[in-house]
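Lab manual, section 2.4: Encoding a predicted structure.

Procedure: take the sequence of the chain (544 residues), apply the prediction step described in section 2.3, and record the output as structure tokens. A sample record is shown.
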Amino acid sequence: MSSSSSHDVIIIGGGINGTGVARDLALRGLKPILFEKGDLSVGATWASSGFIHGGLRYLLYDVGTTKQSCIDSGYIQGIVPFLLFRLPIIFPIIPGETHSIEKVETLLEAYDHFAPYKNGKLHCRLTRDEVFELEPGLSERITGAVTFDEWGIDSTRLCILNARDAEKHGAVIKLYHEVIKINREGGNVTGVKVRDLRGGSEIAVKAPLTINLSGAWIPRIAGMAGVEVKIRPGKGIHLVLDRKLTNVGIIMQAIDRRSVFIIPYSNYSLVGTTDTDHFGDPDNLDIYRSEVDYLLEAVNRLFPTSRFARIIRTFAGVRSTAYARGKNADELSREHQIIDHEKGDGVGGFITMLGGKLATYRVMAEELTDLVLHKFKMKEKCSTHILPLPGAEAKVDRDKISENYIISEVAADKLIARHGTMCEKILGNRDLNHILCLCEPVLESEAGYVFKNEWCETLSDLARRTKFGIGPCGGAFCLHRGMDLLHENKKRTTKEVFADLKSFLNEQWHWRRPVIEGAQTVQEELNYALLINSANIDRALSNE
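Recorded output:
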């Protein structure tokens, strides 16, 4: 296989798999171009639980996935340590409701064999008194617990850093560009037709190889190429609570004996997740009150003090799980599949990859890139497990950052956790080092940097990259200045800024609507009143 065009490979999909493959291809000397119809990470990557974990539950029926996940957890810790945080987890024991402590400990003893791969700690058994010393808010019915640990990560930041490094090494990243047609000649795929969703133009792009990494949209893209790819799309939802209820993750059983969790994440608590079949349109994903109540029943039963927390939003995504019949959704294998359509369907120049987990994105990209290089008769070795991602070149001293740039230690911690060594470049203009969003917090200088350097085009894009506007206040105190920064950095007109605000508010309402009750209703009314009185939002939007 050879290339006479300016691009060797077309990648369809800007999630963690797409950006991970783009990085590996670029590092090995090829010239990929990536098309994503929305923002980076906007599908299952953004909606993941943010675990770089071995997958304890997979150990019972998918040992290979557990081992590989643990190995790659270690690699990811090495290439982007500032983005991860250790997450201790307890598995409480309740007689008659959970397995016995002996059975759980037997499982964790097996899991201990994989702990060295992911720099994990071995499990330990806790007495009832030790459990309540650690977490006094748990149910009195608990008789003991077993502990293990995993790693958490900001999955959107991981995706963006992979894209930035891919671009640095020659990849082209095109967001808000939708593939509307796959071109074929002589039965083989030769390129794509793409529509710029912001500008409206359409272009044709040629390349010897096109890779379908579009997640839940895989069957749709495959159909454009004249082949059938079946997946078992699995929907998962999460709830975000307004405070950190616990300093450790807690595993609990839902009413159907599925395992769900509550974990501390940044300043909040994250509750998840469901796993149900979703054969609807992945572009129109709703969360139903019954799904919310399913998670709340489990959390409130084990952790009664969670009733005092306010649910500030939800989010959901669809997994592109490998197709299988006769199994419940959460029993499906998380192994990935790479389909070379030249061999299976007689359609050359087209490859699909589906399945997998966030924790195995890097090794999945390595395996797929090996196949691509074989087609191009190249032999460059993979280096993604060794080379650091942007910002991971050195360790950053939080105290020096806080002192030198006159920002709080909390703001410094958050900035370092998102950007690593790049934080000094962000803070260079001291006039902009003011708090933009107090909930996270986010600095104005960070927002400006993100707008200019990370393909950030909208307020929603900014929220994904920094958590701007999606904390407990729901943007009440930061949206106005965020609109100013959008205007200043992207040169948007007033009409365009208000149109973007409307889009942001509609998106946030979509994810908050399923949990509007009690104090959250008051917060919504306050936010709307502030926007009416300080920005004439009702008139601005009605006059579009």
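Check your result against the sample. The first helix runs from residue 16 to 27.
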